[in-house]
Every structure is written in structure tokens, then in C-alpha cells.
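Section 3.1: Structural characterization of target chains.
Under the original work plan, the team committed to producing a structural model for every single-chain target entering the pipeline before any wet-lab resources were allocated. The record below documents one such target. The sequence was received from the expression subgroup and is listed exactly as submitted; it comprises 185 residues.
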Amino acid sequence: MLSIVYGPPLSGKSTFASKMNNINHISVGKICRHESSQQSFRGLYLKHAILYNWFIPSQILLPLVLNNNILSQNQENVLDGIPKYSHEINPLKKLCKNNKVNLKTLHYLNPPLDILLNRLKTRRTCNLCYKSSTNTNLCSCGGLMITREEDSMTYFLDRYSRFQNHSAIILEKLSSFMEIKTYVD
């Protein structure tokens, strides 16, 4: 079974997923950052895509995210980071069908923009494990908490604008076959 956590950047998707009990959290961002650290062609492509805020085609992204053994058969899977664009919905449905995974619930996080902007001001990310925090200079893993380029105001506003442009159609399409639960901070 697969549920999706959906919302704009900085809406707390990973935090929300981490608070769910007995789930397998599949974070697209974490997977892409890990893959981008590899010296493969795909890893180098993803490294540049993340750095320059490029669109990542679903033909690259979906197989990477839903590859062998990432989906747990023993517990609910929660996907965080796909879909971002409406054209990713059908390939996602097809991939789930081929892997015998049922799409269940969309958890839609929709905090107001002022809350997102406040989070942006204090967001820091570990340079080793990519955990986000606002309250320390050192991560529990020993890494340094840094402000990533992708957490700049310009980068955020671009990502937020893309989200706004695509969210209505995505919600409409997903509501035809998934239960939608909306959360507002």
C-alpha cells in the first residue's frame, strides 16, 4: 500500500511522514541527494539538477524512487516528493500497478505562505545526513548544519510558484482514485 505526502516546499512533508507510525518513508529528496553523491551518469545528472533547480524527468525519477526492495510489503509506504507535475501521475499509477502496490491516501499539507517563509529563514540542513533542523549548529550524526543553496529565497520562490501552478490539477486528478486528507498549519 502506498500513500503520498503532498505539499509546497517547506510544508513539513518529511516531518509529517516521520511522525506516522509503522510506515516506510520514501523521501524523493533524500534518494536524489544520495544518488547525486554517486559518480554514475545518473548521479552526476541529479547533482546538477538539484544544484540548478532543473526539472527531473519521470523516466529517471520514478524508477529510482520505486526501485527493487524500496517498497515494504509488511507495512504502509509513504511517498514524499512525487508527484510534482500532473504528467507524473499516470507513470506513477502504472509503476504501482506493475509492482502490485495500491495507492491509498494523499496527505495534503497546505500551510499559509507566511509560515513557509518563516521556516525558510531558519532552515538548516546537515551536510552529512541531510536532516533538517532549526535549533543547533551540529547534527546528532556529527555533521554541520548548513544553509543549502536550494533553501535560498530565490530558489524557494521558484519552487513554490511551480507548486502553485500544478497543485490544483494534481489534487483533482489524484482525488479521482485516492482519499484526500488536508492539513493546514
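The CA atoms of residues 31 and 65 lie 7 Å apart.
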